[in-house]
């Protein structure tokens, strides 16, 4: 039996999405997402916040760059990925990210209109949301 790698988060963007355009016209967006939990510790209410690195590819990245902003509440589904790289001192570093497969903007519609756009409702925008799924499904691999 194969394993399951599924992440579901609901949280607030820590900053506006950072968008890059890679070779071949591939768009990638990334942003930190804060999720918070509250619990009682020694009779006091405590809030614990976790920060997650979110990465979106292709059409999903384009939609995110168009509609998401710092502080907005979103629901994200994706997969956990860990990658490595060498820093300037040639030390190997590891980064764990959530590679989003889809997201839903939560809150009032007006929350996502402040940047001059209406929330996505057209077939073209729905197509952008689904563009990335075909590539991943065909190859089984992320484009990096």
Structure notes:
By secondary structure, the chain is of the alpha+beta class. It has one domain: OB fold (Dihydrolipoamide Acetyltransferase, E2P). It has helices at 58-67, 123-139, and strands spanning 7-13, 18-21, 27-41, 44-57, 73-86, 92-105. Helix 1 (58-67) packs antiparallel against helix 2 (123-139). The longest helix has 17 residues, at 123-139.
Which key features would you list for this structure?
2 helices, OB fold (Dihydrolipoamide Acetyltransferase, E2P), 144 residues, alpha+beta, 6 strands, 47% strand, five-stranded mixed barrel
Q: In a few lines, what is going on in this structure?
A:
With 144 residues, the protein is of the alpha+beta class. It has helices at residues 58-67, 123-139; strands spanning 7-13, 18-21, 27-41, 44-57, 73-86, 92-105.
Helix content: 10-25%
- What is the mean predicted local confidence, pLDDT? 84
CATH structural class: Mainly Beta
Which structural class do the helices and strands define?
alpha+beta
Which ranges are low-confidence, i.e. pLDDT below 50, for 5 or more consecutive residues? 121-144
Task: Count every beta strand, where a strand is a DSSP E run of 2 or more residues.
Answer: 6
Strand order of the largest sheet: 1-3-4-6-5
Topology as a string of helices (H) and strands (E): EEEEHEEH
Under the CATH scheme, the architecture is Beta Barrel
Q: What is the global morphology?
A: globular
Please state roughly what percent of the residues sit in beta strands, choosing from under 5%, 5-15%, 15-25%, 25-35%, 35-45% or over 45%. over 45%
